[in-house]
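Question (not urgent): is this output format expected?
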Amino acid sequence: MASGGTLKVVVSAITGNAVITLGKFAGFFVSASPSMLAEAIHSLADTLNQVLLFIGIKQSQHEASTQHPLGYGSATYLWNLISAVGIFFLGFGVTAYHGIHSLIHPPENINHSINWIAIGVLLFAFVIESYVLVQAYKEVNQKRKGQNWISFFNQSDDPTAIAILFEDGIAVLGVALAFIGMMLTYFFKNPSFDAITSIIIALLLGLMAIFLGIANGRFLIGRAMTDSSQEEMKNFIENLEIVDHVERILTRVIGPSNVRLSLEVSLNGSLLIDRKKISLDAQEIKSHPEQATGILVDTFDRAIRTTGNAINELEKQIQTRFPEVKFIDLELH
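Got this back:
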């Protein structure tokens, strides 16, 4: 499940963006700036989508039940995907439409003077968005543990913090673009700059939505752990004394730090046999042939219990070494 750090970042993002959204809409009403409206819609989309991320995290923390025996870990990916769709249609779609409309049909009698209230709103938004961005960066940087950024984005099984990082990164950039658009409109007395800025903001939101949709969708359709992680797991298991050979290993990520492992192994049979006890059983059968059936039943029962204990110990060793493995399906070859 998502860490407490991720949840804290999401809550901070929701709080910050809710305040910023109100401020940006107020700034738009006093400035009639298309880029300010784009930023207001952007912050509204961020707020609503981060609420969806919060819902996904909380639902993923529910305990497994009879109807959901593997838990609710995948809820994170589902709500993140819904969030990405929301960003695409609300953030990209509405913002792009308004920007293009303003570019084709620029508003009449627009006031080209600097609106200090709108500038103040942007500065306030920049400070808040920057703070949330720094918090998201710290959380993601802690999770990647020295891994390069591209590999981390491709391999991380917890895209929630990454989503917040991207959203607030684009939010900070969007505020800067909105400021530039307003300044260019003021200096050149041409509202096209403001409209173009809002279109650029929309395109950034669209690209982010597509990235987040792909990042979460791949887990919903059953993504495995990385090849290197699976190879590391296979080598560990094969080096265990009880294991003779790993015939097959399959993994499926079912939530952040939540993996289901399907394993087919050959056990080292010599470690499952108590030769001394079998010799005593053979002598007992030789001395009391009429009790042979009962002695053999006891021998097989003991072998089954010994194998069962060995399997339990094997699973315990795997989960101790790889705590993200929460479920193991083991088949003997």
